[in-house]
Amino acid sequence: MPVHARSSARTDHVPPQPVHAVPAVAAAARTADSVLANLASDVGGLAEAEHERRARTFGPNAIRTHHARLGPVAARQLRSPLLLLLAVTAAVSFFLGERTDAIVIGVIVVMSVGLGTINEFRAEQAAEALHERIRHRVVVTRDGRARSVDLADLVPGDIVELRPGELVPADLRLLSVTGLQCDESVLTGEAEAVRKSVEPVPEGSAVAELAPCALMGTVVAAGTGRGVVIATGGDTEFGRIAVGLARREPETEFQVGLRRFSMLLVRVAAVLTIGIFAVNLVLHRPLLDALMFSLAIAVGISPQLLPAVVSTSLAAGSRLLAQRKVLVKRLVCIEDLGDIEVLFTDKTGTLTEGRIEFMRAVATDAGADSRVATLGMICTDGVVQNGRLTGGDALDTALWAAPLAPQESIAQYARLATLPFDHARRMVSVLVDTPRGGRLVITKGAPESVLACCESVPEAARRALDAEFAAGHRVVAVAVRSAPGQTALGPSDEAGLRLAGFLVFLDPPKSSARQAISRLDALGVTVKVITGDHPTVAARVCEQLGLRVGQSLSGAEVARLSDAELAQKLSDTTIFARVDPEQKARIVRAQRSLGVDVAYLGDGVNDALALHAADVGISVDAATDVAKDAADVVLLEKDLQVLADGVTQGRRVFANTMKYVLMGTSSNFGNMFSAAGASTFLPFLPMLPSQILLNNLLYDASQLAIPTDTVDEEQLARPARWDIRLIQRFMLVFGPISSIFDFATFGIMLWVFHAGEALFHTGWFVESLATQTLVLFVIRTRRTPFFRSHPSVTMLTAALAAVGVGALLPATPLAGALGFRPLPGGFFVALLVMIVVYLALAEAAKHWFFRTPPTIPAARDRRPDHRLRRRAARFATTGHPAPGTSAHPAQAFGP
């Protein structure tokens, strides 16, 4: 369901699970009997003063409103089992007399929770800000005038217009319908649309107790209608079911990768922890010391702040994208954008300016051009009131806005019935009384559909049509037939027509589209066009923009192909024209079956199926409600340039996340392996548990600056995905390199400086912190660091600050409480040499590692297909996802 927000609040419509039986709406009305007894149902609608009074009584038309709150975010940090275990251990240590360790561990826990809370709360605020910018509109009649208002402003008594593709915004008592059908699967689970009719209201009956009604959350599948609002928000049938439900979005592929990575660390930590604990017990060390040390090893190898690093990256990415007018409804979908390899997009407003202009009318009879324009204006399923059109499509709006449009002629026609446009017929028809007393059926639509209904078509008209198509113009055909005595209108009446002429529209190519297509091509994204327009028109636009024009497939041709044949055609096909909604989804699924990630950009109800079928569904702010709710990403500007920004930002987020992952797994594993090995031959623990945790906290805190880091161009050129086997290999190669220098430090401390327990702890603390922090500058790029790839100033400052704090701590008054001793000057000379040699060896190993292919190729695993499963589950359950119901990414992460 849509999201509505006011000030800092985010208001979510949460979709319920299907139920098997839905009562009418009497239950929804019971909470407002005093108002519903006097609902305004006249054609003029509510007065503004009455609307304001009812708005104060009923509140916003929303099911649930909530803010980004600090308390729940902080509570989520404590769900980490390791943090809870640390807190318990600190409490036990305090009561057993180890108060210094208890205080140090407690401070570390508080700081870890605080860092995570601050970063996640900022991410939550970023997500809330994005949702506040998404609006859903509805046409209502107030003070006798039709107007478009925010859906959240509806109150009982408002008169609402319903059009195909719109969500029913509240529970409505229908006043009039024209072929209205509603998809009620969100409430009933039944896939077949329900046809709606209007029944008279017996005198003395409560409006809310009578069928037929249109219920909130259902979708207008076909036709048009008008109804009076009888219940809003939580008082609706939808709200009654949904208000008590909590719903969590399924995982994205990015979250799945994080979870798998976390499980890898859990397994490694479990092996090390159990082994170290057993060895320390065998060596007869105190039970509490052995337990604390083993626990510290487990925490040390686990990147505790990974959720905070990812959240910071995603929040920073969302802010940058919002500045570029790209709204990501779930932060984790930013990374999904980076995986795009094929983009299916419509033509209007994306490749073209989207400012459709009426050029001219071309009549089959000489001198009748103005009559063709008049017939075209009359033949609309929009609302015409006081000489104005409300709720019409883009072509109708352009026709009515034309300066030479004969609007004075419209009032002479009386519209008796309307057969609305649908995507199967591709036409709209009206039954009208003419100024001369005759009665006509007027049909307007796609030229090939209208011409097929005509008795004969002059050859000159066909040549004129082909010429307009070749010029890249959009064309609508208009046809008529006499209908004396006819009172109703159905699809069978669209026959025996006489072609009146054509309406020609201009939608020029967008000036920025050529550069955007070139940029997407450089990012490895193939652009393909799915359009309802004629293939010749689409091909002409693509040629003008420099987009390679391969083969074209029409909807009729797609229908004749099997799925396997369609998949074979995709590599050479750029344009898909005159396709229906199911065919759009079928094309997307066929493309995905070839093992590539697919994005779909669409804005109509006929795009909803394809938006669900794509890996990334993209819509625009001016799209239909169904399209916006089916999409993961909403563009405030329908521009491929901002989409290219989104792809780049998604890859940037993933690249920076992988820097932290690769560095953390290698250096942490090396240090913890060193600790495990040293504990077997040293007469004391190689580092105190509190020191291990402090080391890990300083190191992790410095890595919170990774989201600000620059990313090399080659890392943005192609999508990258989670590869657990690569991470394992990286850990097994670089971890031992880190351990070599740890053991070198052990030797220097024992045999050169003859260190006791405290000095040994201090030396290894400083060395391990310096090496594992500074190696980031090697791992962050596949180029030569500092010469061919420069880190961000923020990250460089944070890393050097962490190393500096670690080196200075032994010389501060806190040293005694932390178990440190001042280090001799000679140690820092040895440390500098070890750092230089370590980084040089790591650089050489990096070049060898990335030049050597893995023993077993890391083929892409599409079997889980999590994004498709997520989207399919949402569609099967609700018919449209709830963009506002977004779980924070950290909730899906491992420990």
TrEMBL record:
**UniProt keyword Transmembrane helix, yes or no:** yes
EC number of this enzyme: 7.2.2.14
Q: How does it sit in the membrane?
A: Multi-pass membrane protein
The broad enzyme category this protein falls into is translocase
- The answer on whether this UniProt entry bears the keyword Plastid reads no
Q: Which cell locations does it reside in?
A: Cell inner membrane
Annotated GO molecular function terms are: ATP binding; ATP hydrolysis activity; P-type magnesium transporter activity
Give the residue spans that cross the bilayer.
78-96, 102-121, 264-284, 290-316, 730-753, 759-779, 791-811, 823-841
Q: List the residue ranges of the region (Disordered).
A: 875-895
Q: Name one GO cellular component term.
A: plasma membrane
Under Pfam families, the record lists: Cation_ATPase_C, Cation_ATPase_N, E1-E2_ATPase, Hydrolase
Positions of the Cation-transporting P-type ATPase N-terminal domain: 26-98
What domain of life is recorded for the organism? Answer: Bacteria
Q: Which SUPFAM superfamilies match?
A: Calcium ATPase, transduction domain A (SSF81653), Calcium ATPase, transmembrane domain M (SSF81665), HAD-like (SSF56784)
Which keywords describe this protein according to UniProt? ATP-binding, Cell inner membrane, Cell membrane, Magnesium, Membrane, Nucleotide-binding, Phosphoprotein, Translocase, Transmembrane, Transmembrane helix
Provide the catalytic activity annotation. ATP + H2O = ADP + phosphate + H(+); Mg(2+)(out) + ATP + H2O = Mg(2+)(in) + ADP + phosphate + H(+)
Query: Hey, which family's this protein in?
Result: Belongs to the cation transport ATPase (P-type) (TC 3.A.3) family. Type IIIB subfamily.
**NCBIfam families for this protein:** ATPase-IIIB_Mg, ATPase_P-type
Annotated function: Mediates magnesium influx to the cytosol.
The protein, known as: Magnesium-transporting ATPase, P-type 1
Organismal lineage = Bacteria, Bacillati, Actinomycetota, Actinomycetes, Mycobacteriales
